[in-house]
Each structure stands twice: as structure tokens, then as C-alpha cells.
Amino acid sequence: MISYIRGELAAQYEDKVIVDVGGVGYGIYMSAQSMSKLPPVGSEVKIHTYLNVKEDSMQLFGFLTVDDLNVFKLLIGVSGIGPKGGQAILSVLSPDDLRFAVMADDVKAISSAPGIGKKTAQKLIVELKDKLSIEDALEHAITEDGALKAQMSTGGEIQSEAVQALVALGYGNTEALKAVKQVEITPDMQVEELLKQALKFMF
């Protein structure tokens, strides 16, 4: 199994890059979002990889972070979504955006990916909802600072209530989730205060 490849970015195409490692060029398929974050050709890169083995071929799919790779693995675990489908979804939605979309039942956002229809998007939401949570979506979008993460673990309930309240006010599910995750949670914060802070990010 190839966990990652480090080498010189030798070429970049529409959906694939070539990484030169000791004179051997590895072709790696990547999402549009990941491709847009790559350094110029000639730079050194480290790309986390997933090797897809078929009867007649082997394909490498690449990711700039371990989180991207883990989300990709969740996607291809959904019935009807293969590596190309997973890559298509991550081309239009970042891992955090996908988390928000799944938790918010945002079929429209997920089905905006090429080749992903409404029924497939609905199936994805059903199958991944138990593997993700609002806390996951919020936590991945905030700093890895230990103290803040501890606050997040105690603030999950009021965050959920705040999201529900914003939706009741007429805001979209995904929009509400994104606003709430931008608020810095304090140990004694109440839902009302969280709502006030979150509303500042709605405009």
C-alpha cells in the first residue's frame, strides 16, 4: 500500500498530476480543489494517496491532507459512489463543506457534483450521517488548540440548539451551521448569546 508520495511536481493536467520520485513519474488523480492548492510545477510536494485496484488497472488518487483522504474513504464506502464520484464531490465541496451539507440534509449542494444525482446524494446523506456529527463539522473547521477543543466538547448541545433556532428563523441549514461554527464558545455561554454572535456572521 502506498500511503503517500513525496517528490517533484513534474506536470499538472486537468484532473491529474505527475510526481517525479527518483526518476519515476507517478500519475495521481486529484480533485479540482486540491489541484488549485498545489505549488508551481517544479516544487516539492507530499501527496497522501489511495490506491484503487481493478482487474485491469491500478489508479492512484491523491490528497493534500489526511483529512481529505479520510473523507474520500467515507465517500467511496457509500454504495454507488466510486473513486471518480468521490473525487467529483471533493472537487466542488471541501471536506468541511461536505460535513455541513450532510448534517444539514443539503441534497442540492451534494448533487451539484458532476455525475452525482439527487437520489445518490440522498443515499450519501443517509449512509454518512451516522459517521459524522455537528460536532465533527464544527471541530474540523476550528483550530486544533487543545483548550478550545475542550470547550467544543462541552458546547456541542447548545451549538445544535442554536443551529435549529436559526433554521426556524428561516436560514438555510448549511448557512446556519457555518455561522455557528465561527463563534468562539466559552464554558458558560448560553444559547441566546451564541445565537446573537452567530447572527453577526449571517450578513
TrEMBL record:
GO terms for molecular function: ATP binding; four-way junction DNA binding; four-way junction helicase activity. SMART domains: HhH1 (SM00278). Transmembrane segments: none annotated. Residues 154-203 are annotated as: Domain III. CDD domains: UBA_RuvA_C. Residues 73-92, 108-127 form the Helix-hairpin-helix DNA-binding motif class domain. It is found in: Cytoplasm. Has three domains with a flexible linker between the domains II and III and assumes an 'L' shape. Domain III is highly mobile and contacts RuvB. Homotetramer. Forms an RuvA(8)-RuvB(12)-Holliday junction (HJ) complex. HJ DNA is sandwiched between 2 RuvA tetramers; dsDNA enters through RuvA and exits via RuvB. An RuvB hexamer assembles on each DNA strand where it exits the tetramer. Each RuvB hexamer is contacted by two RuvA subunits (via domain III) on 2 adjacent RuvB subunits; this complex drives branch migration. In the full resolvosome a probable DNA-RuvA(4)-RuvB(12)-RuvC(2) complex forms which resolves the HJ. Belongs to the RuvA family. This is Holliday junction branch migration complex subunit RuvA. It comes from Dorea formicigenerans. The lineage of its organism: Bacteria, Bacillati, Bacillota, Clostridia, Lachnospirales.
